[in-house]
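User: Quick one: structure for sequence A, then sequence B.

Assistant: Sequence A:
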Amino acid sequence: MLHNLWNALLYKPFVNVLAFLVSIIPGGDMGVAVIILTLLVKTALFPLSQRSIESQAKMKLLEPEIAKIKAGGASKEEQAKQTFDLYKKYKTNPFSGCLLIFIQIPIIFALYYVFYKGIKFDEGVLYSFIHAPLHVNNIFLGLVDLSGKSMVLAVLAGVSQFLQAHYMPKSAPSVGGKGNFAESFGKSMQMQMKYVFPFLIAFFAYSISGAVALYWIVSNLFAVGQQIYSNKKKRLALVTK
């Protein structure tokens, strides 16, 4: 049931849009179609992802205040009340960012699956008003075969993942310079996301196909641009206050 729903609402629409894009792009360049489809999906998700970024940034800024509440020696009930008042004061919700991310995951995974499964425009998947492209060129810009493995695109996927991690919101410094276990764990995860995860992405991108690697590159660069935009927006808001 869920699989059929996922196919009908996400997978099939993406395949059909991709088929349409390939059919109208001069030369049927699959790489250009992959880029356009990825950008279309990321743009559609921009409002949700933007709210998620802003929510995460607020939570990072509130970490020292929450640490002070926990170190204050109050009862668990009083700590919960003070923390709730803090969230209310700064108009933030610790669960909103996670909820927005969970909403996006099926959409992003479906787009990824389109490229992971292998780009085939079977008649059983295409709508009646969408025809399979007469010519499909898997050699992106005449240089890289997207149907096979590409070391160049895999490396670029890893680099783009590093850039995305680099621009992610950082945890605020602890009060007094002493962090608790949660803060130390968070910093450790940030380090792994920045220096370990890019190698994993590069490895998986190379293991699957050039199309998946290209998808990761475009998706990550879009996220980097969005994070830079968010940072500039935040600095502008501070200046105008």
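Sequence B:
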Amino acid sequence: MDTVWQHTTVLLNEAVDALITTQDGHYIDATFGRGGHSRLILSRLGAQGSLTAFDKDTEAMAEAQTISDSRFAIRHEAFSAISDLPARSAQGVLMDLGISSPQIDNPARGFSFRGDGPLDMRMDTTRGQSVAQWLETAQETHIEEVIRDYGEERFARAIAKAIVTRRQERGPVRTTLELASLVAGAVKTREPGQNPATRTFQAFRIFINAELEELERALEASLELLAPGGRLVVISFHSLEDRIVKQFIARHAREEVDRRSPAWMLSKAPAMKLEALGRTKPSEVEVKANPRARSAVMRVAQRTEVGAQGGM
């Protein structure tokens, strides 16, 4: 009998409340996951509303097939592929970053050190290198750089050296528990209650899926995709993601338009910018019910006009 992996959507109502400004708009769930946000969005939309979702995880795609709603469409693509959609066609874009509980809990996916499994970590298992395949040939300096930059791990050098030494002496690391054991032997101290391998696993997952690059591309695409008054809602789960989102919103919220420039005066469309609408964290009640929500941060911004159409 197949195991059914459960997932609890973080900031479910808060995200959908922030996202929807009209029942008849077109909305984007850029990270479908197990569909918690998508199902609630659909329940809030009117007959003329619609939702397009994206996910590159094949298990997420299978879950999406259980939704029989003519207003819903799913695309098996990374969330940066929202750039393919028409400009100003969406009333809202939702991005729920990171990984879902079923991905973490299923040892076969290789995301966690809680159970032994193949060292994979790919969101889309149909393409690209697994972490194990990458570690077969990766240079020690590159491994160190990935662990340091994406895991913010101060023992990155020692961990990278241990991985390469193991590869030279006994062959490459293949499983999650092998990697966790290597990291534990290289890390001298760790915060109370945190597994020594936590930061390394995060770093390898982010790297192998190009998560931060995907996020940057998706954010830029959302700026073109959102209609005036449309909302951008992003839920992050670690500081690297949240920093990118925060800086993106701040950069475009303070963007100025030079009305004296020929480009502005000749433009057929009004110039636009983002307005930051706030930051939300899960309540104590939610964190108690779902401890994985504790690090979540939701940021909301709105697409607004900054100038009327110019002319000569």
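The chain has two domains: 12-101+211-305, 124-208. The longest helix spans residues 156-170.

User: Thanks, that's what I needed.
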